[in-house]
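[09:14] KT: can someone run the structure on this one? pasting the chain below
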Amino acid sequence: MKAFRVAIVFALVASLVGAAGCSSSPTKPVSDTPASSPNPTVSTPPSQKELQEAATAVYRRIYVQELKLQHAGGADELPPAWTELVTGQLATDIANAFRAWKRNGTVSLGPDPVVVWIRPFDKTVQGSVVSLRVCTDGSETRLQRPDGTSERGRPAISYSYLKYLDGTLKAFDSDDKLVSRC
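[09:31] RB: done, structure tokens below
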């Protein structure tokens, strides 16, 4: 198992450990509204640009769901909305990470991490149809522990891999790394 495999808790959770800065402007605000994704059963396969747009829409929905769980202090189980967004071992890893947040009494006090940029990524893993690189800056975000201590986050770059499952584009694998800035 990868050292910090929960990269969808990826750039967000990774960016909430430690401290550093990032000076880039944030991307447009995120929404919890589902975006349409290319249908893999149409006669013309989606273009790479359409796949990237669909993957970005999935990532933005994941981001919104993560923020909800971070502010709630984790959860015993992932809410149903997650089944449309992630699958496989990644879904298990994210669920385990948020169980640990709840068990440990960790909660995000904000401000929320900022998605600085989302870019296409040309590396794929077996089964992926599209990949993204995302830099999220959590350097202003504070995590509160039950003992009253808190810590600031730091920027992280996430590499997300998506595939179609039952006609829906979902994240199934990811990696991330902490960085000094986006």
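[09:33] KT: thanks! Residues 1-31 have pLDDT under 50 and may be disordered.
[09:34] RB: yep, looked fine to me
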